[in-house]
Amino acid sequence: MSEALLTDLLAALDVMVIERLPDSSFTVVGNIPAWFTWLYTDAAANPQQLRLDLTSPFLENFLVDAEAFWNESRPGQLKSGSWEEKGPSGKEDNLEAAALCLGDRKILLIELLGIAHEERRRLLQIAREKALLQSQLIKETQKKEILLHCIAHDLVGLLMGVRVSLSLLGSESLSPTGKDYLTMGQRQYNQQERLVNDIVQAFSAEMESLGTFKLEADKVPNLLSCTRQVINELTAMASLHKVNLQLDPATDCHREWKVVGERLRLQRVILNLIENALRVGPPFSVVNVSLHDDGVNVILTVEDEGAGVAAELVGTLFQKFAPTKSGQYGFGLYFCRIMVERWGGTIGYAPRPNRGSRFWVKLPKFISP
Amino acid sequence: MLQKKICMLGSFAVGKTSLVARFVRSIYSEKYHTTVGVKIDKKQVPVEDKLVNLILWDLYGEDEFQKVHMSYLRGASGYLLVIDGTRRETLDKALVLQQRTEEAVGKLPFVVVMNKVDLKDSWEIDDRTIEELVNKGWQVFHGSAKTGLGVEDAFTALARQLV
Q1: What share of chain B is helix, strand, coil (3-state, %, to 5)?
Q2: For domain A217-364, which architecture applies?
Q3: pLDDT tens for residues B110-162?
Q4: Which of A283, A362, B36, B100 is the most buried (most CB within 10 A)?
Q5: Which run of H or of E encompasses A26?
């Protein structure tokens, strides 16, 4: 290729081409693109002895990796990743550098990223916004599911109390005015009852829709991979609590552990159980997570070495508003129960023989149709 | 003048760019604008009788789409580990990043910023967990890029560790 053609080609590509010379200096190949001069006026002043240290700290940092790349004469190219540069007008541009070897010549390319980069940024923006929304939605749905249960429960409970009180009042010998007031109260009660029933029914309809669960064959969760993912997510947390979080070494990792359920919610259930175990596990203890198969079901067990659940709390452990000593179990276990039951499974707790808790989740195995 | 490179580390959308914008330019935007590459800013801060030029490397947040290149941390004097108090998972990510940073460049001074303290009612990270971070010897700041609370303190505390 003639030098003139090469120069034209580089100009058309609008890429800054720099050669690293044997004396460690840099020289420009072809012409300097206008954007480079605009961004790095001082560096561009001497194209034959290009001062890259006058460009950007990012590029300086990349040159360390580039040197290693050139010295090893590796094939392909080493990309720097993009960085943002602000020009004299305050406009922000994105650049990317790449190191490559052409025979024994060491080349550095710097490219002004254009539409493709903006498109990538836009996609990442959308993906991250969606990830944030999805995470928010999952949390909100969980809260809503629990709240709906609680509202329905509380409204009905309070109303029952009013009815009993009115009924007791009716059995007293009341004055005629008192009887009038009682009738008025009962009328109000009846209205209130109708209203509450309407609300509860509306909520029940919503719960019904939340509760509708249809297993799609291509979305059947693998309990082992869900468990591994959660363990992976919580490894750092375990290390913060100085607890050894492990998947039981005896777990058969070569077979399939497909179960009836929904992957994201199943992960949430496992996350709740393991998080609880990590919270109560004393430093240097072990939280062991294991999977078993009883032929029909798959059983996930989470064992910790904490103080265990107080006997008086065991009976209400999986209920909403379950009284707890420290609020450690709260709504989480209630959520686990309603999810697991929705999939046709069961959840339970048993103290460990010496010390600690064992929570288990039993889910039906998925059988291919 | 002393020059110190500081990296901003944390999961995506925890507010790293917003913290830098608040610290350097005293501005804040409600709109989430994801960072794809690296942005470098500078700010001089007085530390005792010295003026320190902080070179702030705002690295894109790590997620399933982008992993942070540890080579960006080369030459760093310290870093800010940013956590979004309203998203529990960002704490887990911060712990992983801290560990990876230490493996890549050794022990460096750093401070933790529990960002979005203006949304404290929606926080998913409890005091006990934060206390555990403090018990590890970590310097933890409750901050808000939105209101500016704790931002200056966090950067200045880190700068103090560097001189």
Answers
A1: 35, 30, 35
A2: 2-Layer Sandwich (3.30)
A3: 999 999 999 998 898 888 789 889 999 999 999 999 999 999 999 999 999 99
A4: B36
A5: strand A26-29
- pLDDT tier for residue A16 given thresholds of 50, 70 and 90: very high
Residues of B within 8 A of A67 (CB-CB) are: none
* Residue A282 per-residue DSSP state: P
Distance from CA of B5 to the nearest CA of A (A): 10
Closest chain B CA to residue A118: B36
Chain B: nearest CA to A271, how far in angstroms?
11
Domain harbouring B71, CATH code = 3.40.50.300
Token digits for B108?
A: 């460096």
Contact B129 A240 (CB under 8 A): yes
Q: Take residue B57 and report the two structure tokens written for it.
A: 């490397």
Residues whose CB falls within 8 Å of the CB of residue A340, separated by 6 or more in sequence, listed in order: A269, A346, A347, A361, A362, A363
ipTM field: 0.91
Whose structure tokens read 């203006």?
Answer: B118
Taking residue B137's Cβ as centre, other Cβ atoms within 10 Å add up to 6
Buried residues in A293-319 as b, exposed as e (16+ CB within 10 A) = eeeebbbbbbbbbbebbeeebeeebbe
**pTM attached to this predicted model:** 0.71
Residues 6+ apart with CB under 8 A from A79: A96, A97, A98
Q: Could you tell me which of A28, A97, A95 has the C-alpha nearest to residue A69?
A: A97
CB of B126 within 8 Å of a chain A CB? The answer is no
Which strands, in side-by-side order, build the sheet including A357-364?
A244-247, A286-293, A297-303, A357-364, A346-351
Checking if the pLDDT of A326 tops 50, the result is no
In the CATH hierarchy, which top-level class contains the domain A3-113?
Answer: alpha beta
Instruction: Return the amino acid letter for A230.
Output: V
Distance from CA of B33 to the nearest CA of A (A): 7
| Alpha carbon B118 to chain centroid, angstroms | 17
Alpha helices in chain A (DSSP H): 3-13, 34-39, 41-44, 57-71, 115-170, 176-211, 223-240, 263-280, 311-314, 332-342
Domains: count for chain B: 1
